Amino acid sequence: MPVARPESSDSRVIAHVDMDCFYVQVEQRKQPELRGHPTAVVQYNAWKGGGLIAVSYEARSFGVKRSMRGDEAKSVCPEIQLVRVPVARGKADLSIYRNAGSEVVAILSRKGRCERASIDEVYLDLTDAAEKMLSETPPESLEVIDDEVIKSHVLGISAEPSDVRQAVREWICRSNADRRDKLLACGAFIVAELRMQVLKETQFSCSAGIAHNKMLAKLASGMNKPAQQTVVPFVSIKSLLEPLPIRKMKQLGGKLGCSLQDDLGVNTVGDLLQFSEGRLQERYGINTGTWLWNIARGINGDEVESRVLPKSHGTGKTFPGLNCLKTIAAIERWLSKFSEELAERLEVDLEQNKRIAQTLTLHASAHKATESQSQKKFPSKSCPLRYGTTKILEDALNLFQAGLREYLSSSSKAYGNGCSGWGITNLSLSASKIVDIPSGTCSIMKYFHTQDQSCSSTKEFNDKEIFEAATLSTSGTCAGSESYLMKHLQEPQTECHEDGTKMNTLMQTHLEDESRMFEDKAQTNFSREISSLSTPVKKNEPQLDSVGEDAVIKDAAGGNRSRDQKGKALKEKQGTSSILQFFQTKNCFQEPKEESVNDMQETTESSCSGKADGTVPSESGGIRSLHRGADQSRVDCIYKIDEIDPNVVDELPREIQEEVRAWLRPQKRANNTMRRGSSITHYFSPNKNL
Ligand code: DCP
To answer: Is 0.70 topped by the overall pTM?
Structure first.
């Protein structure tokens, strides 16, 4: 659903940069002898020469199109060079292109806010840079103007071909121009320079659109390719938009565009101008109505998001015709490859960018044997993402099973291993809802990652734990994962996974709560959040300690104990600090195990001899804090000292760092049990504010 956003200012300078025949350029850099020759990149599937996915401009001049297969391309352009896309795990390996895209982004982001929109597209907000140039070195003050700037296409300039350059020069240097157009002229300088820099550093050419919003910049970037740039002055917006087919506009390619055509007879953006905002709102609702009214006039308030890294990671493959997958075993084989790739990319992202993905989604296209049922779409399914190939595969399989069950609904005969009656023609996995983790969290995560390795994997997902991709909210939080977590926290059989993925699920809750906060200044906010732990909780704020339910907590050494956690998650999510939640939930929400019965009794006994401050030494080298809420229910937490990563200490608030360091020193530990436990336990305890 499009969102109508008013423009914060009409004096913005936004650029959309799009690489030219990108995969071809990447291959040509690898094999420079291909430069200047008709070239195309083809899919790994060699049937009929392979499907073309990128076509060089030389090949395009012969009539070669992306919709062709290699054989057909050869027939229209016999000298075309076909380069096969790299293959790994039996499918296309796009990492070379992704990395090339990152090289470009790194250069483009030097001049302003940069949003990586796809593998080869970037939006830039150059308003500040343009304003600076206008105040310090306005175009009319320049004696020499680079040719790349003069070669810009300025929409609305009409001149004989031989005079176009002069006309562009004059438009760029007009001293009496509208300030907004002067800023766009400065944008043309900045973008030309960036594009030249990209060419110099990467050998890739790109094209760009320069306008005062994202929508117009994107429309303009494709107008003059390759290696050119197009500017949209204010007076030209109407003439740019009016003739455009409505279905070509972003977000109007689907049902909404169809309805505009069929119900209102709107075929071009210009046709939309005859409808009042009220009429459009009446027909499509307030938000969509306003959005439509706006786009017809070139109004688009979307901000350039600051994002140089991909928004999600995806991997998949099509299985056309007879290649379709017909058994669960075949599905598992492919999901295993996808999981491996996804896990690797997620690890790299975590390691390099300190980002964590929260949602795993499985998409598939399917057909059924019976014609009457074939209209039904295979539903996309999502669940909280757990790191590690095994976990991703396990979850992906469960998502697939859930999707298949729903897809087949009543037709039970087609379901099961070795089944028939269905065929999967497209299968993919994606990891999304990626959020930054504050640097301070990393070693804490590592610590818990190690800790969780001692736990065993148990429970399978069931349908209720899997939520529809559609339930993901647009606000940046993941509604479905909350319900997943709630379920796990409410049920005694909550599992702890051997590879630390329990940590990830819990971390996810932590991150969901904090994700909006992290968007700004992660580290600052995280510190602030930690600091807030030491400030008293206001009376009416939800408090962990007021849960009033029994919870016997797991010793990090391996004993699993838990009691009823009902209602706890909700309270935690409502108002408590994330680090507190994290430490507490990590230790609290474990599945009871047979072998942990003794531990539980032991803990209970030890708890009875707890000190006045609620801490007791633990046999496992940890400290345990015992708390009694107003209702005398017990909450007991144990933290294992020996396994705490000393790096964690640096990331704690200053006021407690010293004490924790002392607490970690062996000689102190021997004779300072009470003291070393007091503050840190109090700090991380559920009811420290009592
Ligand atoms: N791509 C793909 N499959 C598609 C479309 C594109 O694999 N159906 C890949 C190959 C392209 C890259 O994505 O090189 C970027 O896609 P674009 O649509 O931007 O097309 P190109 O960059 O190839 O060409 P252009 O210069 O027209 O933008």
So the answer is: no
